[in-house]
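W.,

You were right to be curious about this one. When I first looked at the sequence I had no strong expectations either way, so I just let the prediction run and decided to look at it fresh. Below is the sequence, 169 residues in total, followed by the output.
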Amino acid sequence: MTTLTKKIGIFGIGNLILRDEGFGIHTVQYLENNYLFPETVEIHDIGTAGIYMSPLLEECDPVLIIDVVDTAGEPGSFHFYTLADVKAGNFQTRMSPHQLGLLEILEICKLRDAAPQEVEFYTVIPKELTESVELSDVVAGRVVEVANMILRRLAELGVEVKRKQVPVR
């Protein structure tokens, strides 16, 4: 009998119409537009799916989450967190009080004995959360940088990612 191996998950979280809140989605779109990922990697624009992301979390381990974070600091600054940081309350896992927090979603996965063991958060502090589909300049400047961090992490995990060929004009 074969054992099912979980995939590596890359999830962009956020609200695309609230400017910097869409950082995770913009970063995932950049990765999808510029790189080819093997079948061992699941890459998703989660948006504001909340509880609906639990089946995706259950299929993946480790999970690399790209999002904005509500913490003190300079807008656009990068912050890395682990699941242990979240459980210790070191940062807020939801920007809106209406969102179901990631910890609650992971608890639901745990009830089904399918929670990922390793979750990493690649986050930036937003500058603006106004109505716009464009990122602020300071946060937009972090998209490629965080995407490269994700690519380096995949390489550490033994995953080969190929850059898409740019058509010659």
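Here's what jumped out at me. The two ends are 51 Å apart (CA to CA). And, maybe more interesting for your project: Residues 95-99 have pLDDT under 50 and may be disordered.

Coffee later to discuss?

I.
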